[in-house]
Amino acid sequence: MKKSLFFVIAVFIFGLILSSCEKNPAAPVIIPDEEVHKIPYERLSGQIAFRRIVKDLPDEYYIIIIDGDEHSLTNKALFYPYIPANLQFSPDGEQILFSYYSYRYPTLSYQWQLYVMDLSSVVMQNMSPSYFDDSFGSWSPDGQKVVFWSNRNFQSGLWLQDVGADTAEFLFPVNVLARTRSAWSPDGQRLVFSDMDSSGRAVIFSYDFASLETKTLFVSDEDSNRVAFKHLVLAQDGERLALVKAQATGIDEIWIFNLIDQSKKQLTMGNADWHPCWSPGGNQILFSRGHNLYIINDDGTELEQVTFGENNFDEYPTWIQ
């Protein structure tokens, strides 16, 4: 009798764990917002998606859509109790790829896992289940493949997987401390990624899928303990790379690296600026600063605030193609 009761209790607890870890996000709700009329829609053609955390509701995470043509700001989805991180929308804007710190019952521990959510049905699934950390995913331009960082098989590296497939393919090893970020070229032939070199310096590399060759693009003058390159994103011309130069001092700046002539341009300074994304025309960059989103021209001019919620944290903007 006691054994049976223990078994029932154990199954009940296990069910609670699974339900808390695998529950789909709630359906979207419309959030009235006074800031809607302040948004500079004239600079925001098409749609922009981003994550919003509401300060008074710390356990709720919203996916918000700004429609530059319709002059609207609406809530697309509500995550609860998920904490979606490292978000990236698919090129068509219909799916979202993100990392979630998930409890893995067989290992009795938490790992970062990679999830895909369909924004129409608000249904999500673990894209590539494993008992290791999977994170920092990056969509291919056609939305058919994803490259992500993982420490599978106890080796830090980048992996490639077809969306909807059951298994991932190991590409190449990278330094575990870098938690490597990557970005696809618009033609899908190359991958640009951040890592460390043998001297411990932060480096930007490119990887050619056809030749399987890796080439050094940029090397930082500073040690990777002081500087890291994060949130890489290539413009549609495939020649300009926007990224965050994250510094140990807490200052995070947005730079543009030109892959053709090796020139560099600093766009922002003195703040904590994150998550840059290019406009479809390649002449503007949208990014997170403090609580809100900002936009700036690719030459560093016309910095302008885009969202205005004082009790929100707006992050991971994506300009839907």
Structural description of this entry:
- By secondary structure, the protein is mainly beta.
- It has one domain (2-319): Neuraminidase, CATH 2.120.10.30.
- Helices cover 7% and strands 50% of the residues.
- It has one helix and 24 strands.
- It has one helix spanning 2-22, and strands at residues 47-54, 57-67, 72-79, 85-89, 95-104, 109-118, 123-126, 134-139, 145-150, 157-162, 169-173, 182-184, 190-196, 201-208, 214-223, 227-234, 240-247, 252-258, 264-266, 273-278, 284-289, 292-297, 304-305, 312-319.
- The strands form six sheets. A four-stranded antiparallel β-sheet has the order 3-2-1-24, with no helix packed on it. The chain has a four-stranded antiparallel β-sheet with strand order 4-5-6-7.
- Strand 9 (145-150) and strand 10 (157-162) form a beta hairpin.
- The longest helix is centred in the N-terminal third of the chain and has 21 residues, at 2-22.
- Residues 1-23 have low confidence and may be disordered.
Our count of helices gives 1
Known CATH architecture: 6 Propeller
> Helical proportion?
under 10%
Taken as a percent bin, the fraction of beta residues is over 45%
Global shape: globular
- Overall residue-averaged pLDDT value: 84
- Biggest sheet character: 4 strands, antiparallel
Strand order of the largest sheet: 3-2-1-24
CATH superfamily: TolB, C-terminal domain
- Number of DSSP strand runs: 24
Helix and strand composition category: mainly beta
